[in-house]
């Protein structure tokens, strides 16, 4: 029988350890009592000795990573044991749960797979296979699409607190324009898009694009997800912002990176002098080009953002491979002017909520948290006044004064339009008479926010339309 | 037409409320032990017997059970009795009438009757009266559907809540902390009510919510002033009503602060703090909690006689301070 | 007819002779009540008996939830005591309270409906057998707590006095309650304040299984009256006339403002304490002996003997009661149950 060499617990509160150095090479003949490797803990470096005679093999890489206590780090074959009958090669992978974790029936070892960033006090920070975090921290992480496992808890016993999530959720890509291209701008060492940092760090401070005062308004690109592959660009509707896509993205997996645009006057983007619809398209196009998104991209746009997406795609400056338009504007003259007025005028959760309810069929969709987040986002954003100017420019007198019908007719990439039949902002009948190459999905009993109210359907359609080979 | 506002003691405010109600409605009567010429053990009824006569300020025999039952029967049949227990501890003798009768008759009889009864309970420790005269049993009664239970902390509130209780068609139990009787505060002349079932935010703050009852409200406010010197802004909520409990106000506050400390004098376990904590844990405020909820309540022993032991047995300003600091420092 | 009075500290049984008034051979109380009231009393006694027998049958058929405490054998006590009372007067009752309720004028249909837990019941199905009340008729309610209603009755009497009405309150309770503190506290206060209340102890000899001999230090519950300086009256509770006479005396006294009276109505429950009673504490012979002293049979015979009732009238009264009970059961069975959503209705007024 080969004997295991495990990473032993050498300290009371030790849950993981690092092998700082192997003292024997693979294939060496070792004798019981011979030092095999050095283990590094917070307090000391200790030598670990062999517990059997034989030939050592399958040594775990001594790179600087944490290995859960009890993990197998090598095997020792007794003399004469055939390599063929050896059990699976040693992996610093799941070892049987031990001690406390075992008592709790925890999936401790699974959660502690190598490479997982560690919280300060190791295993104690994780309870029954989940991170120790306050309810508030959990909610914030959920809303921002942040994995708790990626965070360090600064609270007692490594508990992740709201401040830890807040520190991690500062967008890193909201840099002053002119921006460097996105791939370079991304800090290479940061796995999470939301690198830890505080708001005083200039590298992580969101800066509105007002740095370019001569522009009629500029759009800002926000990286919502990390990834390799064709980027997905999301363009929000009037009154929203890039971050408004986060609930939709929660639980979704895309191979490519995901970017959100803040249109002029929205989110972190100023919108001083938007004179018309084309200014919005200019701003979106410039932001993407300046960010270096010159290769293939897929674009999703909602409402006003849908119109911007279609028009931008038609210009041909970007390599838009597919277009998914959710309740797009620009297909007819009517728009709910009362909604625009009321929504812009609302200054409290009480007054905002009724207008948000106009967006959906199921009032349950509009949770108090969503209302609050929307209100807060507006307070953070470039300002309601800027949005008023945008509205005055593109929806004067409550009328959509631009059309994307001609643009749509010229597009040759896959284009899908999704409308809820019960849309109270833009009537679904606008979707009648689309060009023959544009597919229409009419979702019954859905309002203006199909990506909220029918997110699964929208996801399925999105996956159909983006290149499946990616 | 603003009523004149004077400084009255808590006891005077109670007496004034009772006098106003008795002037307005001759069916309002006072019952209790030694509330007549003696003026009540804590001089709350004072000279009311001279003003309203022995028929309306009735000294009862030392018969808590019978007396409470008489009050229930009188309330069922047209009177509005205000029954004073000499000490809230003595209500244990009358539990049958309070819990089985007053609280349940309306329900048992399918809504055919109501019991417009007010009972007053001088409660709490701090007077050196030891184990059988110092208890805080409000949570016992607050556990019983059919009763309403209030715990006013200021002269203004006790007058307003008592007048609200007298006007209420259902039995209302008022727990009065004995240490508050001499506390003075602004009280408007004339009749006004404070709504039963509504908490009051005594101090605004964004870092931690402290929900307190009765005397603990004042200790929490004192602690809050100290905390402010460290830059910790505590929001202090005076619960005022245990049943019905205004969980909405607490939920909104915890959503703002993310941290909650409950301070009350009754025994810590299975008490008011447990109820508040659970209400928060079950509410939307759960997702806003950024630290464990703390309960500061009475020790797990009868109230002792020795003054230092007595103080140690219930939360003091320092207890609240220490707890808040630990919580805010992330040590809990 | 037998009756003794113990007055104040001088416990001296005084037999009250049967009075013949103006040459009539009728008891004075019968002359006072008149034929119609007597027939009505007989009908109420029948109603009580039939109600409880009907309830018993319904229970055995599983139509009734929970237990019930039957007063079969005690009908004269309930009806006789309520004879001087109007709807404005109050009673408080006990867990064995069906008789008091009917005697005070309740509708047996709504009573059955309450038994069946229906919305049309007196308590909308919230109270059941043990909490039936009929406030409109002055019944402040049965009570599940032994002695629970006694202080409440005193409170109602205090209220009546304070509001300067002529209302009188009768508090029914059993022999078991005479050892409760509430009994003593309440009697004391009623006497101190001279309140218009009549305490009626229906001594049916057993508090559940424990006999009064084993539970009570005095020979008669009425002897307790001495301690509270009020008249203590002992009557044969199975003798309608005796009960009615004692009740009239006590109620008249209360209305005159002379204070409370304690009446001990000695009677017997033929059935067990509740449906789960196995009668281990008393003999069949004892039960049979009391069965032979059925108050309804005795009252009916007396009315027939005195010529206050004919055989045909007697049959008619009984038939009428049977019809009422049948209709009541049908009403209850067909009534709707309370909506589940109304579970917490009636906890508070608003």
TrEMBL record, chain A:
Domain Lipoyl-binding: 2-77
Name recorded for this polypeptide: Acetoin dehydrogenase dihydrolipoyllysine-residue acetyltransferase subunit
Region (Disordered): 84-127, 178-212
Family affiliation: Belongs to the 2-oxoacid dehydrogenase family.
Cofactor(s) the record lists: (R)-lipoate
Class of this enzyme: transferase
Residue stretches making up the Peripheral subunit-binding (PSBD) domain: 132-169
Key words, A-Z: Acyltransferase, Lipoyl, Transferase
Enzyme Commission number(s) from the entry: 2.3.1.12
Any one GO MF annotation of this record: lipoic acid binding
Entry-linked SUPFAM superfamilies: alpha/beta-Hydrolases, Peripheral subunit-binding domain of 2-oxo acid dehydrogenase complex, Single hybrid motif
A cellular component annotation (GO) from this entry: cytoplasm
Quaternary state and interactors: Forms a 24-polypeptide structural core with octahedral symmetry.
A Pfam family annotated for this UniProt entry: E3_binding
From TrEMBL, chain B:
Presence of the UniProt keyword Coiled coil in the record: no
CDD domains recorded: TPP_PYR_E1-PDHc-beta_like
Residue ranges occupied by any Transketolase-like pyrimidine-binding domain in the UniProt entry: 8-183
Signal sequence, renumbered to the chain: none
Cofactor: thiamine diphosphate
Regions annotated as coiled coil: none
An example molecular function term from Gene Ontology annotations: oxidoreductase activity
Domain of life: Bacteria
One family name in Pfam for this protein: Transket_pyr
Entry keywords, A to Z: Oxidoreductase, Thiamine pyrophosphate
Name of the featured protein: Alpha-ketoacid dehydrogenase subunit beta
Organism: Lichenifustis flavocetrariae
């Amino acid at each position: 029988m080969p004997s295991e060499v495990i990473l032993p617990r050498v300290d009371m509160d030790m849950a993981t350890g690092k092998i700082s150095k192997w003292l024997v090479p693979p294939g060496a003949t070792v004798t019981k009592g011979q030092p095999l490797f050095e283990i590094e803990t917070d307090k000391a470096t200790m030598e670990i000795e062999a517990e059997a005679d034989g030939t050592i093999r399958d040594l775990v890489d001594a790179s600087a990573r944490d290995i859960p206590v009890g993990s197998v780090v090598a095997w020792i074959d007794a003399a004469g044991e055939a390599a063929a009958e050896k059990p699976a090669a040693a992996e610093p992978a799941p070892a049987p749960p031990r001690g406390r974790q075992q008592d709790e029936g925890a999936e401790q070892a699974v959660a502690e797979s190598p490479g997982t960033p560690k919280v300060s006090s190791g295993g104690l920070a994780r309870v029954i296979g989940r991170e120790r975090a306050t309810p508030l921290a959990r909610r914030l992480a959920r809303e921002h699409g942040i994995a708790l496992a990626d965070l360090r808890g600064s609270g007692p016993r490594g508990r992740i607190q709201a401040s830890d999530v807040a520190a991690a959720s500062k967008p890193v890509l909201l840099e002053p324009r002119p921006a460097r291209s996105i791939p370079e701008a991304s800090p290479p060492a940061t796995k999470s898009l939301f690198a830890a940092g505080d708001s005083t760090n200039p590298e992580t401070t969101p800066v509105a694009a007002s740095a370019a005062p001569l522009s009629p308004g500029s759009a800002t690109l926000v990286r919502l997800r990390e990834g390799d592959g064709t980027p997905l660009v999301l363009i929000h509707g009037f009154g929203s912002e890039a971050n408004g896509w986060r609930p939709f993205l929660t639980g979704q997996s895309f191979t490519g990176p995901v970017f959100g645009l803040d249109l002029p006057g929205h989110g972190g983007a100023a919108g001083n002098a938007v004179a018309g619809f084309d200014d919005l398209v200019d701003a979106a196009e410039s932001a993407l080009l300046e960010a270096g998104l010159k290769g293939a991209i897929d674009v999703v746009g909602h409402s006003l953002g849908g119109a911007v997406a279609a028009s931008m795609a038609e210009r041909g400056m970007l390599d838009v491979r597919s277009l998914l338009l959710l309740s797009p504007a620009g297909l007819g003259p009517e728009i709910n002017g009362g909604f625009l007025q009321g929504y812009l005028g609302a200054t409290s959760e009480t007054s905002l909520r009724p207008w948000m309810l106009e967006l959906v069929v199921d009032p349950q969709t509009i949770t108090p948290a969503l209302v609050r987040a929307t209100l807060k986002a507006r307070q953070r954003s470039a300002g309601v006044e800027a949005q008023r100017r945008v509205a005055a420019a593109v929806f004067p007198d409550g009328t959509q004064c631009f059309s994307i019908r001609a643009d749509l007719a010229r597009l040759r990439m896959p284009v899908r339009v999704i409308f809820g039949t019960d849309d109270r902002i833009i009537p679904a009948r606008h979707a009648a008479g689309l060009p023959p190459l544009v597919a229409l999905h009419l979702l019954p009993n859905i309002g203006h926010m199909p990506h909220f109210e029918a997110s699964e359907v929208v996801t399925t359609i999105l996956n159909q339309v983006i290149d499946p080979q990616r | 037409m603003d009523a004149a506002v004077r400084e009255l003691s808590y006891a005077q405010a109670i007496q004034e409320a009772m006098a106003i109600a008795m002037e307005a409605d001759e069916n309002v009567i006072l019952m209790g032990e030694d509330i007549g010429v003696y003026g009540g053990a804590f001089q709350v009824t004072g000279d009311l017997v001279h003003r309203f006569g022995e028929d309306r300020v009735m000294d009862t025999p030392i018969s808590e059970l019978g007396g409470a039952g008489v009050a229930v029967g009188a309330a069922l049949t047209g009177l509005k009795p205000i029954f004073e227990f000499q000490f809230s501890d003595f209500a244990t003798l009358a539990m049958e009438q309070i819990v089985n009768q007053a609280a349940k008759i309306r329900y048992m009889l399918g809504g055919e009757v109501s019991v417009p009864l007010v009972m007053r309970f001088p409660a709490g420790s701090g007077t050196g009266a030891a184990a059988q005269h110092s208890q805080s049993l409000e949570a016992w009664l607050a556990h019983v559907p059919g009763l309403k239970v209030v715990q006013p902390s200021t002269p203004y509130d006790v007058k307003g809540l008592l007048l609200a209780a007298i006007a209420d068609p259902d039995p209302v139990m008022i727990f009065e902390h004995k240490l508050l009787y001499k506390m003075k505060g602004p009280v408007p002349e004339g009749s006004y009510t404070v709504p039963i079932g509504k908490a009051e935010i005594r101090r605004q703050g964004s870092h931690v919510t402290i929900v307190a009852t009765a005397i603990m409200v004042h200790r929490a406010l004192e602690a809050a002033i100290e905390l402010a010197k460290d830059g910790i802004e505590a929001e202090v909520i005076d619960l005022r009503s245990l049943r019905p409990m205004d969980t909405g106000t607490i939920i909104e506050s915890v959503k703002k602060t993310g941290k909650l400390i409950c301070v009350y004098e009754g025994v810590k376990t299975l008490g008011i703090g447990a109820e508040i904590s659970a209400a928060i844990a079950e509410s939307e405020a759960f997702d806003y909690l950024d630290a464990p909820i703390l309960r500061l309540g009475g020790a797990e022993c009868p109230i002792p006689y020795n003054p230092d032991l007595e103080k140690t047995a219930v939360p003091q300003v320092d207890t609240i301070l220490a707890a808040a600091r630990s919580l805010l420092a992330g040590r809990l | 007819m037998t009756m003794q009075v113990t007055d104040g500290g001088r416990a001296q049984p005084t037999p009250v002779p049967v009075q013949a008034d103006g040459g009539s051979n009728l008891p004075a109380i019968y002359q006072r009540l008149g034929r119609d009231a007597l027939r009505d009393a007989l009908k109420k006694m029948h109603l009580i008996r039939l109600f409880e027998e009907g309830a018993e049958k319904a229970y055995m058929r599983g139509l009734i939830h929970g237990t019930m405490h039957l007063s079969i054998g005690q009908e004269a006590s309930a009806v006789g005591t309520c004879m001087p009372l109007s709807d404005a007067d109050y009673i408080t009752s006990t867990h064995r309270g069906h008789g008091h309720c009917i005697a005070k004028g309740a509708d047996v249909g709504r009573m059955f409906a309450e038994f069946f837990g229906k919305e049309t019941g007196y308590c909308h199905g919230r109270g059941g057998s043990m909490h039936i009340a009929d406030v409109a008729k002055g019944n402040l309610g049965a009570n599940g707590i032994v002695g629970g209603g006694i202080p409440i009755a005193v409170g109602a009497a205090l209220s009546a006095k304070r509001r300067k009405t002529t209302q009188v309150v009768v508090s029914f309770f059993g022999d078991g309650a005479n050892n409760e503190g509430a009994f003593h506290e309440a009697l004391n206060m009623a006497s101190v304040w001279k309140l218009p209340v009549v305490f009626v102890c229906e001594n049916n000899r057993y508090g559940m299984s424990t006999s009064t001999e084993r539970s009570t230090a005095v020979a008669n519950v009425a002897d307790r009256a001495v301690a509270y300086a009020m008249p203590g009256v002992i009557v044969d509770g199975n003798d309608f006339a005796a009960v009615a006479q004692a009740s009239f005396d006590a109620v008249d006294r209360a209305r005159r403002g002379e204070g409370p009276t304690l009446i001990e109505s000695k009677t017997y429950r033929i059935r067990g304490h509740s449906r789960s009673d196995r009668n281990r504490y008393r003999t069949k012979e004892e039960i049979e002996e009391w069965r032979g002293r059925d108050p309804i049979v005795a009252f009916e015979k007396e009315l027939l003997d005195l010529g206050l009732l004919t055989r045909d009238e007697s049959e008619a009264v009984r038939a009428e009661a049977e019809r009422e009970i049948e209709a009541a059961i049908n009403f209850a069975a067909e009534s709707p149950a309370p909506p589940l959503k109304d579970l917490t209705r009636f906890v508070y007024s608003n």
